[in-house]
Amino acid sequence: MKKIILSAFALVASATLFAQANSDVTTQVGNLNLATVNQVGILNDNVLDQYGDENTAAVGQNGALNSNYTLQWGNKNDAIISQVGLMNSNQSYSIGNRNSVNVDQFGWFNESLIIQQGNRNSAEVDQVGLANSSEQYQTGNRNSASTNQWGTANYNMQDQWGNRNKAVTLQVGLSNSAEQWQYGDDNNARSKQTGTNNMSQQQQMGNDNVARVVQDGSNNYAGQGQYGNANFARSKQVGDGNYSLQLQYGDNNEARVRQTGDDNMAFQTQLGFGNYAKDIQTGNDNLSVVNQTGGFHYHLGTQIGNSNAMFINQSN
């Protein structure tokens, strides 16, 4: 009877130990690949696949129920994954040569997805907090994507098709959303959000375009669409409930919006080349609508106070 009881205790102890064990499945097919995996905690899961030559991957998991899948298909790809906390998740796919992935997750329920197709692309994700989500897609060569999320329930998406594009997002706060699309070569997009429930959308189709968004407050929206080459757009919002939309069709256009206050609205549309528009709104409930068609138009609009409205149309 004593032996039966001891055997039962041993069986329960073994089952408990098995339930708390970490899991790693690493596969290497090729030559001179290097994989390092460190798991501390319970029920962490890692799957690492390396197909090719001279790929390098380092995975660190500390906590409980963290999960990682990393695929390297090609040569000389590099991946560094760090997960500290509870139920963080990462998936990264590098298909090509000399691509780089760097993911750092600290907190609970953060999610990251990276898909790279091409050569020498770089993707970086830093998440600190709770339930942040990041998606990065790179198709082409020498593209760079960087995401920094500090807070809770922030979302970021970066989609790059082409070569040498650069996208950067910084989010500090709660429930901010940023989306960046780049189709072409040498485009540059940056978004910085501080506060709650801000939204930024930037789309670049062409080459050498530059887009900047800065949001500090709550419930602000900034949209930028650049369809052509060498356009520049910047939107800065300080306050709550501001709305900015900038659309550029053509080449070498420049559009700027600065909103300080609440519930201001600015619309800028440029169709042509070499146009310049800048709107400054200080106060509340101001409205500015600017349309430029043709070439080399100039507009500077200033609104100080509340509930002002301007409508500007320029063409040649």
Account of the 3D structure:
There is one protein chain. The model is unreliable at 1-18 (pLDDT under 50). The strands form two sheets. Strands 1-3-5-7-9-11-13-15-17-19-21-23-25-27 form a 14-stranded parallel sheet, with no helix packed on it. The protein contains one helix and 27 strands. It has 316 residues and is mainly beta. It has one helix at 2-19, and strands at 23-31, 34-42, 45-53, 56-64, 67-75, 78-86, 89-97, 100-108, 111-119, 122-130, 133-141, 144-152, 155-163, 166-174, 177-185, 188-196, 199-207, 210-218, 221-229, 232-240, 243-251, 254-262, 265-273, 276-284, 287-295, 298-306, 309-315. It has one domain (22-315).
Keyword list:
316 residues, mainly beta, 13-stranded parallel sheet, 1 helix, disordered N terminus, Curlin associated repeat-containing protein, signal, Curlin_rpt
Distance between the termini: 100 Å
Which shape, going by the Cα principal axes?
elongated
The string of secondary-structure elements, in order, is HEEEEEEEEEEEEEEEEEEEEEEEEEEE
Spans of at least 5 consecutive residues whose pLDDT stays below 50 are 1-18
Radius of gyration (CA) equals 24 Å
How much beta, percentage-wise? over 45%
Total of DSSP H or I helical runs spanning 4+ residues: 1
Largest sheet: 14 strands, parallel
Organism: bioreactor metagenome
Pfam families: Curlin_rpt
Keywords: Signal
Protein name: Curlin associated repeat-containing protein
Task: Write a compact overview of the structure shown.
The protein has 316 residues and is mainly beta. The protein has one domain.
